[in-house]
Write a structure and sequence with these properties.
Rossmann fold, 9 strands, methyltransferase, globular, Malonyl-ACP_OMT, 338 residues, transferase, alpha/beta
Length: 338
């Protein structure tokens, strides 16, 4: 077990790592929503999410944001290992939803010459200087949901997304845009939070609201699971798919430190029509329930972050193709008997 200390205790398990927030305080939004428009079902307030990320990067000149990089840094480390398994050097890699560049900072000249970082938050995008990167850096402020508005089709050798796509309203559409932006035989690597992320916090808040207020409200966003990702990647047109799931576990002194870090990460609630406050006594009850149901022997509470890692390739004639059914020259039974 790896220990991190910031005046308060935070343990990150190497089998998995993660985060902290405050009363899941939501940011109000003035973003226009057209209820008569035809398009994907809107779950998240993208304008509110951009504001949350901007504010998290601006606190104390970015210092608060840097103290909570440990979750994304850990996931970026695991994602770069998957990139290194691809024995190919790229001229350029596009980092979609890059934030300050958790993944991009791990790239070196053995992997690529240049990285293009795309994020909706200008404050996060420009938080860290170019000299913290080992390759050439280009920054583009743009909404991850509208990739093809800033990136031409068939232009990218590789696209990576590290913990950004869980806030996208139209995930199938975003995957299609990623595939269209790739060159033939281009690769997409992604990491996104899965459905079991923060299940301890979710259940504790729900039980507390039922007990104190007689009902529940959504405070943690809905997320996908590994089976969904396999289907969505296939429907988007990717081939040679790889999907695997990992966990990151972090221990906190109490629920309050977890909430504080989540806010500093820019991971506060951004669901449309969300409640903009939680009663103090409800939060106190949730903290007590959290410790009672999930508390550990050393007095800390765990926070679980499920991470889904995906790899998909844009089809190309040069890629390996499966043999036709019935074309085998030897029987599997014969091979097993010998």
């Amino acid at each position: 077990m790896l220990g991190l200390t910031r005046g308060r205790l935070a343990h990150i398990s190497l089998a998995s790592p993660l985060a902290r927030t405050r009363a899941l305080a939501s940011v109000s939004s003035s973003s226009p929503i057209n209820p008569t428009s035809v398009g994907p079902f809107q779950v998240f307030d993208r304008h509110a999410k951009q504001m949350q990320k901007d504010r998290s990067a601006a606190r104390e000149g970015g210092a608060r944001s840097r103290t909570v990089d440990y979750v994304r840094d850990e996931v970026a480390d695991r994602l770069i290992e998957r990139m290194q398994d691809i024995k190919r050097k790229f001229n350029t890699i596009l980092d979609l939803g890059s934030g300050p560049g958790h993944f991009s900072k791990l790239l070196d000249s053995e992997i690529t010459q240049k990285v293009v970082m795309v994020d909706s938050s200008e404050n996060l995008l420009t938080r860290d200087a170019d000299d913290e990167f080992d390759v050439q850096v280009e920054r583009i402020q743009a909404d991850e949901e509208n990739l093809l508005q800033v990136i031409p089709q068939n232009s990218q050798e590789a696209i990576v997304s590290c913990l950004s796509l869980h806030w996208v309203n139209d995930l199938p559409g975003a995957l299609v845009q990623i595939k269209e932006a790739l060159q033939p035989d281009g690769v997409f690597l992604g990491a996104l939070f899965g459905g079991d992320t923060l299940f301890e916090l979710r259940t504790s808040l729900q039980l507390a609201e039922v007990e104190r207020e007689g009902g529940i409200s959504p405070h943690i966003s809905p997320m996908t699971d590994s089976r969904d990702m396999s289907n969505l990647l296939g429907r988007a047109g990717f081939t040679l798919l790889t999907v695997d799931v990992d966990e990151v576990k972090v221990a906190y002194p109490s629920m309050w430190e977890l909430l504080e870090d989540l806010q500093d990460m820019g991971e506060s609630n951004a669901i449309l029509n969300r409640r903009h406050f939680i009663h103090r006594d409800t939060l106190a009850a949730a903290g007590a329930i959290y410790k009672e149901l999930h508390g550990q022997e050393d007095g800390t509470i765990p926070a679980t972050f499920q991470v889904i890692y995906v790899i998909g390739w844009k089809p190309a004639p040069t890629q390996p193709q499966p043999l036709e059914r019935g074309s085998a020259e030897n029987r599997l039974k014969d091979a097993l008997e010998h």
